[in-house]
């Protein structure tokens, strides 16, 4: 049996407030997760020998025991007692160290797909519990909806979001999430906000002429730490501001995003900024490595593969 071209979408954090820190070191957060139409893809073929074997593009330097995809498959094996194995092939398009949740999304799609392929029969809550052992962002991809998250980012309430599109910008640096959260310069005392306050803000701040000129809700509390540690990311954010738009960092970075109403408006802006980069940089190191135009998703594409 096999499953081919299984999608693993990226995510962005529409805001991210750090509201405290528990005695065990975990940070208390409030954030809004949204999936976006940038994907890694995975394919799975059942093996009868019980082995988990992976192959694919973008795996250079990543040992199997450190690969979240392999760890997810082995975690599901142990939890269910299945003797089945799997050959996994995947293609990476979501950059690592970018704040887009690529590794977590791959792990979540692996758990969802193998639960289906192997017939292990776990429901959403059981898969989310397994996902939480792999990484903090894995459960939201299994939850499968845009979510207002609290706790350590693991308590979710569904969000209804408008049909926005995004330009996601990748600066030429990657970020260590652990170093950001462990920084003594990170503020951990943002006031808690109610989900209703966020949804009312969305309704009152409709975009004007295709662009939300009033900016974003709240803040990303990780931005000041990342900008201080990674000057090229700060330079990219500053440069986008000079183009007349508000950009926000997703997660712990490095990627930034700008919100639009339609794909056409986002594509027009992307074409314009790349034209400006070519004339501005004159052969120097680019402020921006890459940029994608993508829709905001209303559901994870595998949401209905799991029983609730």
CATH architecture of the largest domain: 2-Layer Sandwich
**Count of alpha/pi helices:** 9
The residue fraction in helices comes out at: 25-40%
Q: Output the CATH class name of the largest domain.
A: Alpha Beta
Kindly report the CATH topology of the largest domain.
Ribosomal Protein S5, domain 2
- Overall SS class: alpha+beta
Number of E-type strands? 10
In this structure, how is the largest beta sheet organized?
6 strands, mixed
Average predicted local confidence, pLDDT: 91
Question: Features of this protein?
Answer:
alpha+beta; Ribosomal Protein S5, domain 2; Alpha-Beta Plaits; 2 domains; 6-stranded mixed beta sheet; 4-stranded antiparallel beta sheet; 9 helices; globular
What does this protein look like?
The chain contains nine helices and ten strands. Helix content is 31%, strand content 26%. The strands form two sheets. Strands 1, 2, 3, 4, 5 and 6 form a six-stranded mixed β-sheet that branches. A four-stranded antiparallel β-sheet has the order 8-9-7-10, with helices on one face. It is globular and about 55 Å long. The protein has two domains: 2-159, Ribosomal Protein S5, domain 2, CATH 3.30.230; 165-295, Alpha-Beta Plaits, CATH 3.30.70. The mean pLDDT is 91. It has helices spanning 68-80, 102-117, 124-132, 138-143, 177-181, 195-204, 223-229, 231-242, 263-281; strands at 2-21, 27-47, 52-57, 85-91, 147-150, 155-158, 165-170, 248-249, 256-260, 290-295. It has 308 residues and is an alpha+beta fold.
